[in-house]
Amino acid sequence: MPALPPCPHLPAPRAGLDWRSLHAHRDADRGADFYLACLEYGHALWQRGFAARSLLCLDRALGADLRGDEPVLRAWPLPYAAMAWLIAGTPADVFIGNPRVHFQHYAGRMNEPRRAQRVARAWACWALVRVVAPDLPGDPRHRIAEPTSDEITAALRAHGHSGEVELWQEAIKKART
Questions:
Q1: Is residue 9 part of a domain?
Q2: Domain residues for 74?
């Protein structure tokens, strides 16, 4: 696997991180510490050349049980910008799968806890992928109503954190430039 450059939107990973960094939270509260562990381990996976697995860690970070006022979010906001940066920066010879299909399926098959929030975030990431990698096809066999940008915005406003819509829209805006 090629070593990939650090992502400016994620915390620098501690040396030696592996699956145990997330496994430690298996039976614990999945709040701020879990969120930071997901970001850190996702960054470590990215730098090791595991782009697809890195995105899955960022998915898990988006599912952390946070209120929106935790100090970690001031230092490391929800990873919309990181998602866009990683997807755009994945070299052609590094496996990333099809993030558009991943988020389409993820949104359509979401379970509790905080289902509405997590569905809104999955669709927000799906929309981000459509901007960053517009050539990636959706899954035509997965019959689901794909939301408009306005519907995603409304869902994030209703179920996300204060300022989350603006964070997502800024990532979309930067991805377009």
A1: no
A2: 20-176
